[in-house]
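Supplementary Methods, section 5.1.

A reviewer requested that the exact input to the structure prediction be made available. We therefore reproduce it here, unchanged from the version used in the analyses.
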Amino acid sequence: MLRRWPIALAGLGALLGSAIAASPAAAAPAGPHAAHLVRPAAQLARPAGHGTRPLVSRGGPAGAAQSTNWSGYAAASGTYTSVSASWTVPAGTCRGSAKYSSFWVGLDGYNSTTVEQTGSEVDCSGSKAKYYSWYEMYPARPVNFSNPVRPGDRFSGAVTYNGGSSYTLVLQDLTKGWKHTVSATLAGAANSSAEVIAEAPCCTASGGILPLAHFSPVTFTSATVDGSAIGSFSPAQIVMVDGSGRAKDSVSGLRGGSSFTATWLRAN
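The structure derived from this sequence is encoded token-by-token as follows.
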């Protein structure tokens, strides 16, 4: 997949520098950077990475951060050791050209140049929706799991920093009963943010964000950071927008400090 860090809008260009242009690691801006690389799913050439971080400016609902590829919530005022959440895989409505969307939990990427993350994917190839799951230690490329994924599957994901350069990523399909526990290493990660995100992967041949696949509303629940509700960390709310500032999806306020819904509005 392509992506992993949120790509913010022009106002932060000076801060984000080359991070705005592509999925490779770059100077870190103050805001989401999800660079999730798209990996091929069933012959579908996916973007290069979920790790692309958002290029962020302020605006939108209640001063939410705006990103061209991330939406959701990110705790980003300290250092963090774990993040987790649950969600139901949304259904994709597909027609026309290829489109992409992913849903994940992760550490880093909002204000740093790495992202350690795991989640699910809904991509469109013409009128056909493709569903799958993955993990990624950005800037390394993502790794797909081979298990079948269907809309309506209940997922749970968690990323934990163990110290040194060691991480544990856990992804479960609670509906189908499979679980993956991945031990991975990444040197130099800042652990400076923890996020729960819906994303439009990066990148087109010219380095732009891929069109956002039409997904049914997806609700993240039990979103926790370091064992507490994400809302207790005064997280940044992130809204995905196009180049003209129009929202590509809507993000609800936090309910109970740990639940929110992302609703698709437009592809790009």
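Residues 2-264 form a domain with the Jelly Rolls fold (CATH 2.60.120.700). These observations are discussed further in the main text.
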